Amino acid sequence: MFCDSCGSFKPSQGLQQGCPLSPYLFVLCIGRVAHSIKLVVQSGRWNGFRMGRRGPQLSHLFFADDLILFSEASLLHVGVIQDTLGSFCAASGKTISNVKSTIFFSLNVLPETRDCIATNLNFSVVTDMGKYFGVPIVHSRVSKNTYVPLVEKVIGTEDFDDDVVKRFAAILPPSPYAKEDKLVWGLSKDGRFSIKSALSFLKGNISHSVNPFWQVIWSWASPERIRTFLWLSYHGRILTNVQQVHRRMSSDPSCALCGEAREDNFHTLRDCPNAKQVWLGPVPQCLWSVFFSGDIRTRIEANLSGTFGRENCDWHLVFGVAIWYIWKWQNECIFAGLDIPSTPIALIMKRVSNFVQAASLSRSTVLGPCSDEIQISWSPPLVNWVKLNTDGSVIADSSSAVGLQLAWQFGFRQLVAEVDNMATVNAILGTSSDLSHHGHLADSIRDLLAKDWRVQLRHNYREANVCADHLAHMAHFLP
Ligand SMILES: [Zn+2]
């Protein structure tokens, strides 16, 4: 807007509130005030508000077109402030509005000092600085309750859905332990990419009807290789001669065993004389017309869901095992020159019986009494050691490292820290950086543990951590 060639200019149309140029001009001008204040503070003549014993000094805050100045409550500082602002006013032609300006004193300022300063500045004294954009300008301890009216106002006035509110609530407050931002995968708990999480996300977004019979096949209780073979058969994907011709792997679709013109799924698994011989035994004659009809999917569904066998027979098992053996024997016959067994059904029934026995044995092993009872209780630390019990569910809060910090500040150098959340312990003890949104906390705790002291971090059962658990939850409801 300014350059040497055009020199200065006078705005002819005026700048009002709401004009897009107005904020820029304001920032340009007010930047000069900030610069002047900074110089005075650096010269040591202006003592601002110190945030903590070793914290930085705060002399001014500018929000949009509001200025908040902080200084020591003394007449000397009144003079310094007047000089600084006076110089700016003289240079810019602006004036200070005494009506719009207020002054707030902290409680330890004597009443006579307050009166004297207020009279000199000619500002009205306030005991409450009110709210700024609905946010209370507080002068005491900030707690959760401070912002409750603001949260209620936001939720009440805007039509936010629950998801948006939860997203707001999940934003962590600024933390002194926060490190550099990292790229994380938001669909997994630990922030790392996994195909499983991506797939479940996609499954949730794709609306297509899933054939419920897939579940029947995949929950079929027998060896994995037979289950896979059933699935391939159901989809017509086993490599019969018809399928080989279809895939340009062969030019002859006929059956190598019986010479039938087309060796497709049905022929191989059901209609080829060798296969048919297997089925005629276990399937009762009255069901043959049904059994030897229909398409491949219907037949497999009917055989795995219903029963075609004789009574007291796990027909779904017999069927599955039988079609797999039929395929196996036919291949061995064609490619290895082996004979098809003379008593195929006896072999199949033996296999089925073995599978049933193995399955029942496996169930009893899994469900059998295998847990040891252990006594859970809190135990005191060894002599010269201190124990810190932390509630794992609250460790997500940025205050969770406070226990460790206090232990360090109190001078304890041998500490047993017990947490009742195994995932938290693993996250802290893990070598790789945790990418979840609590990862920065695990990093900061790791930094604390790396100090020159002995800390044993352990997992403890919730039942032995009742006291810490109770105190942590009480703290949630403190004002
Ligand atoms: Zn055949």
UniProtKB/TrEMBL annotation:
Pfam families per UniProt: RVT_1 (PF00078), RVT_3 (PF13456), zf-RVT (PF13966)
InterPro entries: RNase_H-like_dom_plant, RNaseH-like_sf, RNaseH_domain, RNaseH_sf, RT_dom, RVT-Znf
Matches recorded under CDD domains: RNase_H_like (cd06222)
PROSITE patterns hit by this protein: RT_POL
Domain Reverse transcriptase: from-to ranges: 1-137
GO MF terms held by the record: nucleic acid binding; RNA-DNA hybrid ribonuclease activity
PANTHER family tied to this protein: REVERSE TRANSCRIPTASE DOMAIN-CONTAINING PROTEIN, REVERSE TRANSCRIPTASE ZINC-BINDING DOMAIN-CONTAINING PROTEIN-RELATED-RELATED
Protein name (record): Reverse transcriptase domain-containing protein
Organism whose genome encodes this protein: Hevea brasiliensis (Para rubber tree)
